[in-house]
């Protein structure tokens, strides 16, 4: 089973693309290390305070895939500099 989540988020404190990318890089690295998922910035690369992050997991069980994505989303919510605004999940 392959489950993906597209996470729209706002980074209020970012005053430049460099600051935004440092936040995104930290989130991506920690997600990969903690949950063994694939992570990439999908959209809004040239906007300072907006981002769209894609998170993907593959599992033999639908339940495990859902748990992994839910844990990853809760982890994204734990970053105070990032506010998740919209999330779309899709089975592939």
UniProtKB/TrEMBL annotation:
Protein name: DUF503 family protein
Record-linked Pfam families: DUF503 (PF04456)
Organism name: Halobacillus amylolyticus
Domain of life, per lineage: Bacteria
């Amino acid at each position: 089973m392959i489950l993906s989540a597209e996470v729209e988020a706002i980074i209020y404190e970012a005053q430049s693309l460099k600051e935004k990318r440092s936040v995104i890089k930290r989130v991506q690295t920690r997600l990969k290390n903690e949950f063994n998922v694939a992570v990439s910035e999908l959209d809004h690369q040239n906007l300072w305070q907006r981002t769209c992050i894609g998170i993907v997991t593959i599992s033999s069980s639908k339940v495990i895939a859902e748990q992994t994505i839910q844990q990853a989303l809760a982890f994204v919510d734990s970053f105070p500099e990032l506010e998740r605004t919209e999330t779309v999940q899709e089975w592939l």
